């Protein structure tokens, strides 16, 4: 049963890390719980890089479709960034 749980959780965990909902330094323990692993400083570099990439993609999206952008798209972008910021602020609560 735990192997099915882990195989199901791994893609969700990877997607959450890519989007920015969970810190990159979080790993899955043998019990299936998330553990904050801070043995390396490369995680800080990856976090900053991911944030810069997300900001660049948002900037490109806004200025590529500047004349066609609608209010609904702006609201969607604001919701996206609100979710990212809220997830990053509550990162310690997710791990605990």
Provide structural commentary.
- This protein is mainly alpha-helical and 96 residues long.
- Helix content is 68%, strand content 6%.
- The protein folds into two domains: 1-38, no CATH class; 40-95, no CATH class.
- The protein is built from four helices and two strands, in the order H-E-E-H-H-H.
- The chain has a two-stranded antiparallel sheet.
- A hairpin with a 5-residue loop joins strand 1 and strand 2.
- It is elongated.
- It starts with a helix and ends with a helix.
- The model has no long low-confidence stretch (mean pLDDT 76).
The main β sheet shows up as:
2 strands, antiparallel
- Radius of gyration from the alpha-carbon trace, in angstroms: 16 Å
- Report the count of strand segments: 2
User: From the structure provided, what is the oligomeric state, counting identical versus distinct chains?
Assistant: single chain
The helix tally amounts to: 4
Estimate percent helicity: 55-70%
The proportion of strand residues reads 5-15%
Keywords: Membrane, Transmembrane, Transmembrane helix
Protein name: Gustatory receptor
Organism: Aphis craccivora
Transmembrane segments: 41-62
């Amino acid at each position: 049963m735990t192997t099915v749980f882990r195989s199901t959780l791994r893609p969700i965990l990877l997607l959450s890390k890519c989007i920015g909902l969970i810190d990159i330094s979080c790993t899955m323990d043998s019990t299936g719980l998330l553990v904050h692993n801070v043995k390396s400083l490369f995680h800080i570099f990856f976090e900053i890089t991911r944030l810069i990439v997300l900001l660049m993609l948002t900037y490109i999206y806004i200025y590529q479709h500047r004349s066609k952008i609608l209010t609904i798209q702006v609201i969607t972008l604001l919701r996206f960034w609100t979710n990212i910021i809220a997830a990053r602020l509550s990162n310690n609560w997710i791990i605990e």
